[in-house]
Amino acid sequence: MALSDEELDRYARHIVLPQIGGAGQLRLKSARVAVVGAGGIGAGAIPALTGVGVGYLTIIDDDRVELSNLQRQPLYAANQIGERKADLAARFVGKRNTHIECRVVADRIEADNADAILSGHDLILDGTDNFATRLVVSDAAVRLGIPLVSAAAQQFQGQVALFRGRPCYRCFVGDAFDADDCDTCAELGVLGALTGTAGNFAALLAIRAIVGIGPDAAGTLHLFDGLNLNWRQIRIAADPACRSCGATSS
After folding, report:
1. For 193-228, how does the pLDDT look when each residue is reduced to its tens digit (9 = 90+)?
2. Whole-angstrom Cα Rg for the chain
3. Do 154 and 182 touch, CB atoms closer than 8 A?
């Protein structure tokens, strides 16, 4: 695999970075990333991953555009209300970067289809808006041995973390949130600009993991407070009784 002359021009600002260079750009080109959720987080992450040159993107979302989405999901427009988000996001990718192969999965990801949808990827980026789905995705990532970037935004707070096996996302939130009726941003609200911040930061963690630059961020939760404008980090402890990644899980 090599970079074409057009790609060398397109990614020139990356290639001159000594931490990335041509070798890092080739890693991005060969990477297969699954983005679960094309809502607020996905609308920040998908353009970033498209611009950086991730070679293969799978966009997974069964939702359709609603008027209330436009406050925080700049991938979509008012004349696209009612259309499938995954299709529109893939169309954006194709127009922005013809070097990317994009697959659409316009289905809700569930425990019985997660492994089939997510297998074969090098990294999963989850930006869904409910605990139940995030736990399904995390459990699948652990089973499949795929690194997971999990990102969420609610009210004025963003949360982003990279998980690589153990600890996992379930170690962080526990088993109490597997139900579908947990709070989402529809009930609690979210600042529109915050989802873009969390989505772009999630893409940054994904890029670092793919290229292999910087200190390993796995197992560290990054919290952004949009009211007080500060970031803080929390180290997530592995739960020895975790039914996903714990010693007794199999």
Report:
1. 999 999 999 999 999 999 999 999 999 999 999 999
2. 17
3. no
Rounded Cα distance between 29 and 31, Å, is 6
Domains of the chain listed by start with CATH number: 13-235 (3.40.50.720)
Per the listing, tokens 């609200």 go with 189
Residue 236 DSSP class = P
* This prediction's pTM: 0.94
Q: Which residue is associated with the tokens 């690589």?
A: 164
Rounded to the nearest 10 degrees, how much is the dihedral formed by the CA atoms of 47, 51, 54, 56?
Answer: 60
Query: What are the E-state strand segments in the chain?
Result: 32-36, 56-60, 101-105, 123-126, 148-154, 157-163, 220-225, 230-235
**Where in 77-229 does DSSP place strands (E)?**
101-105, 123-126, 148-154, 157-163, 220-225
The bridge status of strand 230-235 relative to strand 157-163 is: unpaired
